[in-house]
């Protein structure tokens, strides 16, 4: 309690001095960790295998301090999603969610494309030869498989750390399910997105039909893509809002995603993770409900020392990356 009172007084005093000072008109919050300098910092750090992350279908590296790079790592199979992948993604992102040192995540694909989607050859037995003695039991078996596969991308959305997708080449079928569960999407000029499921005789069932309409807010376009399985190229993806930026090639796209992750990771983890939680809540609730939720949320989060540190850095014209925030 005493610490909270002291922090509150410090913050009040800082704001009072700044707002009443003669140089208030010159207040400027500078985001210097953007553009080329951030890309140099992000891509200039030697990649190292992340501890506690050893997988067959994924490669997880510490791109730099507080940033993890999760790479779909079956390039010889076009990063097709096999049984191992569906299990390992859940394990991976559950660990990341609990990793107090991680503040942002970048997902990319190894090789020539982001992902070809579901590995039909590997998963044919589960789908085409389901277990069960009758229709009821087979149906329960299939439902269990579907809900477990849904969890593979639900864990990305639930992860409190912002997740950035860096897409190049094809992003097909399950790839669209994956990237729509991410918070931010960048892509290379050669990228294309394809809701492929109708071409293999099924309705997408692990996230695309639920998240894509909320991402691009154009139901007619969503219906067209889902009914026809046609390719959406990079420029159309940008225009529709599926991605926020398009870059010349894979390398530049990944550098930009890592630079963005670096910028995000320089902020207060309390502020960033609280923002993600409230953005997701607001997506699925009314404005009134969401305002009530964030009021209840911030009644405790406003007591963080991160607030004092951030305001102090701003008033002293320091970059946030020079501030040490406690792990979360």
Automatic annotation (TrEMBL):
Keyword Acetylation recorded: yes
InterPro entries hit by this protein: ClpP/crotonase-like_dom_sf, Ech1-like, Enoyl-CoA_hyd/isom_CS, Enoyl-CoA_hydra/iso, Enoyl-CoA_hydra_C
GO molecular function, one term: isomerase activity
Pathway: Lipid metabolism; fatty acid beta-oxidation
Classification via Pfam families: ECH_1
CDD domains linked to this entry: crotonase-like (cd06558)
GO biological process: fatty acid beta-oxidation
Subcellular location per the Swiss-Prot or TrEMBL entry: Peroxisome
Reaction(s) this enzyme catalyzes, per UniProt: (3E,5Z)-octadienoyl-CoA = (2E,4E)-octadienoyl-CoA; (3E,5Z,8Z,11Z,14Z)-eicosapentaenoyl-CoA = (2E,4E,8Z,11Z,14Z)-eicosapentaenoyl-CoA
Record text on subunit structure and interactions: Homohexamer.
NCBIfam families: PRK06142.1
Family that this chain belongs to: Belongs to the enoyl-CoA hydratase/isomerase family.
Record's protein name: Delta(3,5)-Delta(2,4)-dienoyl-CoA isomerase, mitochondrial
Name of the gene this protein is made from: ECH1
């Amino acid at each position: 309690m005493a610490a909270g009172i002291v922090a509150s007084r410090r913050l009040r005093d800082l704001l009072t001095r700044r707002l009443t000072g003669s140089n208030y008109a010159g207040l400027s919050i500078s985001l210097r960790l953007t553009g080329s300098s951030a890309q140099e910092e992000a891509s200039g750090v030697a990649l190292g295998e992340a501890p506690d992350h050893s997988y067959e279908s994924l490669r997880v590296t510490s791109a730099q301090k507080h940033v993890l790079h999760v790479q779909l790592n079956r390039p010889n199979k076009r990063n097709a999603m096999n049984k191992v992948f569906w299990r390992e993604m859940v394990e991976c992102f559950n660990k990341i969610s609990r990793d107090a040192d991680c503040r942002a995540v970048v997902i990319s694909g190894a090789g020539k494309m982001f992902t070809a989607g579901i590995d039909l050859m590997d998963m044919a037995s589960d789908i085409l030869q389901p277990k069960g003695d009758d229709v009821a039991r087979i149906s329960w078996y299939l439902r269990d498989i579907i809900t477990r596969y849904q969890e593979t991308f639900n864990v990305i959305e639930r992860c409190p750390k912002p997740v950035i997708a860096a897409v190049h080449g094809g992003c097909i079928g399950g790839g669209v399910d994956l990237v729509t569960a991410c918070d931010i999407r960048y892509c290379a000029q050669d990228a294309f997105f394809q809701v492929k499921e109708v071409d293999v005789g099924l309705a997408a069932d692990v996230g695309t039909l639920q998240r894509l309409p909320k991402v691009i807010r154009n139901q007619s376009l969503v219906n067209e893509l889902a009914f026809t399985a046609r390719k959406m190229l990079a420029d159309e993806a940008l225009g529709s809002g599926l991605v926020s930026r398009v870059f010349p090639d894979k390398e530049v796209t990944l550098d930009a995603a890592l630079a963005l992750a670096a910028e995000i990771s320089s902020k207060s983890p309390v502020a960033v993770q609280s923002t993600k939680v409230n953005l997701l809540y607001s997506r699925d609730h009314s404005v009134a409900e969401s305002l009530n939720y964030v009021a209840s949320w911030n009644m405790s989060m406003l007591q963080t020392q991160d607030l004092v540190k951030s305001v102090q850095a701003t008033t002293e014209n320091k970059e946030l990356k020079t501030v040490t925030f406690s792990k979360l």
